[in-house]
Every structure is written in C-alpha cells, then in structure tokens.
Amino acid sequence: MPKSIAIIGGGHGGSQVAASLRDGGYDGALTLVTAETDIPYQRPPLSKAFLKDPKHDLLPLRPASFYEKNSIELRLGARVEAIDLRARRLTLADGGTLAFDALALAPGARPRLPRIEGIGFDGVFALRESADARAIRERLISASDVVVVGGGFIGLEIASTARLLGKTVTVLEAADRLMGRVVAREISAHFLGLHRGWGTDVRLDTAIGRVIGEEGRVAAVETAAGDRIPADMVLIGIGVIPNSEVAGAAGIQVENGIVVDDFMATSVPEIVAFGDAANFHHWDLQRRVRLESVQNAVDQAKTAAATLLGKHEAYRAVPWFWSDQGDVKLQMVGLPFSATRSIRRGSPDSGAFSIFHYAGDRLVAIDSVNRAADHMIGRRLIGAGISPPPEVAADEGADLKAMVAGVSAGH
Ligand SMILES: Cc1cc2nc3c(=O)[nH]c(=O)nc-3n(C[C@H](O)[C@H](O)[C@H](O)COP(=O)(O)OP(=O)(O)OC[C@H]3O[C@@H](n4cnc5c(N)ncnc54)[C@H](O)[C@@H]3O)c2cc1C
Fold first, then answer.
1. What is the pTM of this model?
2. Pocket residues for ligand 1 (CB within 6 Å)?
C-alpha cells in the first residue's frame, strides 16, 4: 500500500477518488492539489441554474468538513507544473513541492478555442470553471446580442439561458445538425425546432470566420462565408482539450489524453488517471475513447481507487449523460457509435420521446427527451445486457420495466 497519495485535480474525479480511497480503508497521507480556488463543486450547473440566477451559489460536491474529517488535505489554488517520476515529487506553480508514493491524475480538460482573428477581444468567453461562469453571468446582465459558437450541449444550454434572459441569440454550428457527435438525427432536429421556437437564430453549416472588435471589445462576429452578426458577447463551445501536458512531459504515455488500461493504470506503476483527461480502451466499442461526463469521472475514479488499493476491478460502467435546455431534459445512456438502426418510442409532437439505438439486434444506447423513465429503464437494460426486440421498444403499450424486473428476480 502506498504511504502517501497525491491527487491532481479537484473536480468530479479528484474529489471522488479521495472519498473512495478513504471508503476503501486507505489510511495513508492523502493530498488533493487543485488549481481552482473553490472546494470541489458540481460543474454541470455552471451552464444551467448558475447562469440563470445571480443568487445561485456553487454546489460543493462534499462539504468542507468531509475533507477535514477524513484527513484529506486540500490544496486549493495550487497548480502542478511538473511531476518528477524518479524523485516521486510534484512541483507547484508557487515553487513548492510535494512528495508522493502514488499519484492519481484527474486534471480534466479545458475549452478548445478556434484559431481566429479577434478571439482575444473583451467579451469573448468559454465556460469550464466557476470563474468563467461568474464572469459570463455578470456580462450577461448588460449584454444584448449574444453569439454562441458551437451547437453542442454547453453551447445550447447557454443559448437557451440567454434567450430566457431576453437576449438576442445566434448559434453558429459548423455541422449540418446540433449535438451531431452524440445524438440521433431525430433528436438534433427536435432541438433545432425547440431553439428556433424559443427565438434563437440557429445557423447550421456555418463556421465562424473572425471576431470583430471596437476599442478592444467585441462588436460583431463574421462567419466564414462573410456574414456579419452584431455581438456584444461571444461564447465559444466547440469542445475541449484534455489537460494531459504535465503528465506527458513527465514521461507518462499520452495520446489524446492520458493513456490508461481497464483499471485506470497509466504507463507508470502506481499512477492512475481517470475522467475527462483519460483515454481508455472501451470494451464494447473495441477502440480507445475519452468520455466527458460526470458519470464517467466518478465511476472511473472508483475503479482507480480500487487499483491503488491493490484490487483489480475492470471499468465496465454503463455511460450516461444529461443536458437541460430551456425546460426540456435530454438524457442519454449507452454509446450509439456502433448503432446500425434506431427505433422511436413516443412522439416528438407530444414533446416526449426516446430513440433506441441498436447494433444489429443489440440495444446499445437510448436518447430520451422528457422521458426520464425510459432513461432509467435503459440504464438497467443496457447494464444487464438485455435488448428488447425493436418492435417491443417501439410499442408504447409494452412494459419494458417488466423485462428488467424479470431478470433482477432471476428469471
Ligand atoms: C459548463 C459545463 C456543463 C457540464 N454539464 C454536464 C452535464 O450536464 N452532465 C454531465 O455528465 N457532464 C457535464 N459536464 C462535464 C463534466 O463536468 C465533466 O465531464 C467532469 O467535470 C469531468 O471531471 P474530471 O474530474 O475529469 O475533470 P474536472 O471536473 O474538469 O476537474 C479537473 C480539475 O483539475 C484541475 N487541474 C487541471 N490541471 C491541473 C494542474 N496542473 N494542477 C492542479 N490542478 C489542475 C482543474 O482546474 C479542475 O479543477 C459539464 C461540463 C461543463 C464545463
């Protein structure tokens, strides 16, 4: 058992690994080093409730007393600049050092910014941390014309909030549909209708060309095709880059994130990595992926803690994710990338429906719009490897719950 463990990153993964190590009986020294100055908090609300309401505070993942009671030393506002593998020592930005026996890497990711003219003007934002969310919330009060670059989850969540606050909102999406990397076409089309219905000008197949400023402040956005859109605020939401540079510089294998095995072990013994920054081989997809979700960060952190405690439990959790846009809840379970066909349950006209994705006869993922029950059943079906025949999934009268209940009862 390592005598001391250092954790880099105080997000969803970092906080969870600390908790899981103590839960698992680890009684050595435990230090969580994170660049952010807030105690680990829930990130998803930053693009949801937090932006809407100036009174909404950060929601800590665990109270400060939790870390105290469990002898987890929190070093906030401390950025790790280098990992010395031979000396087993971290160097911090303030020049301090921290010795470790084992290391848990959960440095997450940062927003990807397009390399375009004007990206540095005052009024251009990207959202990842509480400081970004506070600055965006503050600026939204006085802004009138908001341009969101990127029609993914975060961009669309911000767009719906900005509309709710009465702003003129334009969304630029380079692809031919919204959230195109992860959801079914029918879901993309449904959300396109919703956002347009809320009064947002959504432009598909439209890439950003440059940001135009006046006296250092953003004044407009020009699309790649040359159209000019007035803007006093621009939000960039075009994806993230894993924070794997510090690990890479130390000699830990990185390739689109920190490379880990089924147990979240990196290429270096006694160093684990997990969450947005970890690149792992997905048992079902049969290829390497990085998943960016709370579920993935939390469940991988549990696997990583088990590994550090000498237990070998391969990561096999069912992925799930959610997004709140306006008053509509989108929930996803499983990964649709291998799907060969999809079946609809419910009707988009009613505002509540799900798309069941099949790879051959096997259910691999479900996207649900305002149908939380389908999502919850989906987690159990996919987790248990049960595939309702597509015609059963499509039949609203069919009781999917019974299929799961049957299995858990041993039938
Ligand atoms: C606005 C927003 C909305 C989201 N909404 C959802 C949602 O609805 N559902 C969902 O499932 N997921 C959502 N996500 C994604 C989810 O928040 C991430 O997948 C999750 O936070 C990943 O956890 P993590 O521990 O890997 O990284 P993070 O939570 O990003 O934590 C990483 C931490 O490491 C710190 N760090 C990085 N480098 C260093 C260093 N060198 N030294 C010290 N500290 C360092 C960072 O400052 C950060 O605090 C959202 C993300 C954002 C930004």
1. 0.96
2. 8-14, 33-36, 43-44, 46-47, 79-80, 106-108, 127-128, 154, 243, 246, 275-277, 292-295, 297, 321-323
